[in-house]
UniProtKB/TrEMBL annotation:
Principal location class: membrane
Domain RagB/SusD: 323-573
UniProt name for this protein: RagB/SusD family nutrient uptake outer membrane protein
Keywords: Cell outer membrane, Membrane, Signal
Length: 573
């Protein structure tokens, strides 16, 4: 006790003799500040790489908010949105937080403008690092603004078709975020400007041979060029990816809910065709485009324009989606509406006149149906899946939040060789994020070319009919494709292209945005099908959609509008 008192006295004495300046001096917390980052290559590149966050992959499962599927989880955001809860305070489809990535990219652009970072002691190599990374930042800034535009463009309370604010500088946390929305077309042009600026700086692709180097880099030493733009950077954004993104943006801008503009359709068709001609046009349609997700080979990327890293063994997606009898949660249930969209194997729509049998509904159908959807009686995930009488926990509505609501489970995007064992162990497989596939680019071309001049309009040696013919032949439809041959008008080809897009890009996050840009109602009731042991029974209203009429244009987050009065809300919200 005496020793304790002695130590307290000593410490009190030492505290008294420490100067007040020392006491009040902040402790160095070893945090990096922007002054350091602006001169440190690794830290600066880290800011750039942050701009790759929030890129949208194929695993959003927003189809649960469309006519293609329901989600069996009662608290799922997309389900709640579709059932009527969508508003300016609750919007699971919002992408307003992409502006955080925009701000980091603007900070990176400010840093490299200072010119103080030494990526390499070699002057040529250093210059190329500056060129390429500036191009990446501009491309990603355009992309994140595109995401915001896709989610929040619309007719404002003023009656004007508006885009989103376009942010081109870093704003501190206490800075002025009260930035008005540009018009829709002005936003499109601003994104295009960033994309074009990026194209002037980026290599068309990474890992090019010496004879294929872009003109900008032709006068640099190739060995140094390969250090900066070699195959090590294959998954970074490239000139090829930016051109594809331009086509995607132009198609959106041209669509009926937005500008309904022939000039943008022509731009989309031209940009897409130029990229497609680089792979041989329709002959370059990848053979694995239907089932690309079943196996991942880094040496067979023919279907990929842009993807993420191939991950390690995992089973998380399958755990969410597999039927309950094979230990999954059965989360996404494709709709009868979606199943009905698959034609007969003859290529004609699935109607009785074309050979469809309501009591044998999956016979002689488009092979993609069995590829994408777990049908009653299928073997999948290590078990036989019955969704009708005798199906036990897989039976329709057997177990709340696990069993199917429609009579179907999902196959698309899932690895069928994953196993979720009864003892809790798993056999995982490799997956990766997909950001852009060549099949989407072919469908962009087909839609735009048809709008420009009809089914047989030739643009750079291809037509919409050529593309749709190749896609349907790859799918396994009977040849010759007599149904396609019967299509002669722009209007009929438009419907066929939209349906092919629905099937080919199903469950990859496109349908929700497509319905909105086409101006098609979001309120189609969801149907299902139940096998009662002897016959199939239609379930016409498994889930009724409840979107307001103005949901073609989604809301700006309410707190943003309240904080920043210059940001105009979309009409109705």
């Amino acid at each position: 006790m005496k020793n304790l008192i002695k130590y307290i006295v000593i410490m009190s004495f030492l505290t008294v003799i420490v100067s007040c300046d020392t006491i009040l001096e902040p402790i160095d917390e070893n945090r990096l500040d922007f002054e350091f980052i602006s001169t440190d290559p690794a830290s600066a590149e880290g800011i750039l790489l942050n701009g790759y966050s929030r890129t949208v992959d194929q695993f959003t499962f927003i189809e649960a908010a469309t006519d293609d599927a329901v989600n069996n989880q009662l608290n799922n955001g997309f389900k709640r949105m579709a059932l009527g809860e969508l508003n300016a305070q609750f919007n699971p489809a919002s992408r307003w937080n992409n502006y955080e990535s925009v701000l980091w990219l603007n900070k990176f652009l400010e840093i490299i403008e200072l010119g103080e970072i030494v990526w390499s002691p070699d002057e040529e190599t250093n210059e190329m690092f500056y060129l390429r990374m500036e191009g990446e930042a501009l491309a990603l800034r355009g992309l994140h603004h595109f995401y915001a535009l896709q989610a929040h463009a619309g007719v404002g309370t003023s009656g004007q078709l508006l885009g989103v604010p376009y942010i081109t500088e870093f704003i501190e946390s206490d800075g002025n975020f009260n930035t008005p929305r540009l018009s829709f077309e002005a936003t499109v042009q601003a994104i295009m400007a960033d994309f074009d600026a990026a194209l002037a700086l980026l290599p068309t692709d990474y890992g090019l041979s010496e004879g294929d180097v872009d003109p900008l880099y032709a006068n640099f030493d190739f060995n140094k060029y390969d250090v900066v733009n070699g195959s090590l950077y294959n998954l970074r954004i490239s000139g090829k990816i930016v051109k594809a993104l331009k086509a995607r943006l132009a198609l959106m801008a041209a669509s009926p809910s937005f500008l309904n503009d022939q000039g943008y359709y022509n731009m989309a068709a031209t940009d897409a065709s130029e990229l497609l001609m680089d792979i041989g046009g329709v002959s370059g349609l990848a053979s694995n485009g239907v089932d690309y997700y079943k196996s991942y080979d880094e040496n067979n990327d023919d279907e990929m324009i842009w993807r993420g890293t191939i991950g390690g063994l995992s089973s998380g997606i399958e755990s969410r989606m597999f039927p309950p009898s094979v230990n999954g949660n059965g989360e996404i249930n494709p709709s009868q509406n979606f199943v009905d969209a698959f034609p007969m194997q003859s290529g004609f729509p699935a109607t009785v006149d074309n050979g469809f049998d309501p009591q044998n509904p999956y016979a002689n159908r488009d092979p993609r149906l069995a590829e994408f959807v777990v049908l009653n009686g299928d073997t999948f995930g290590g078990g036989i899946i019955n969704t009708g009488v005798g199906g036990k926990i897989d039976r329709l509505d057997s177990i709340p939040e696990f069993s199917t609501k429609t009579g179907y489970y999902l196959k698309k995007l899932l690895r069928p060789d994953v196993r979720l064992n009864d003892d809790g162990s798993t056999v995982g497989q490799r997956h990766y994020d997909v950001y852009f596939r060549y099949t989407e680019l072919f469908l962009i071309f087909a839609e735009a070319a048809n709008e420009v001049g009809g089914p047989d309009q030739q643009i750079n040696g291809m037509s919409a009919r050529d593309v749709i013919a190749a896609i349907r032949e790859r799918a396994g439809l009977e040849q010759p494709d007599n149904y396609l041959a019967s299509i002669t008008s722009t209007e009929d080809m438009r419907e066929l292209i939209r349906n092919e897009r629905r099937l080919e890009l199903s469950f990859e996050g496109h349908r929700f945005w497509d319905l909105r840009r086409w101006g098609i109602s979001l309120n189609e009731s969801i149907g299902g099908l139940f096998f009662d042991g002897s016959s199939y029974i239609d379930l016409p209203s498994v889930e009724n959609r409840n979107y307001p009429s103005f949901a073609t244009y989604m809301p700006i987050p309410n707190d943003e509008v309240l904080k920043f009065p210059e940001i105009e809300q979309n009409a109705g919200w």
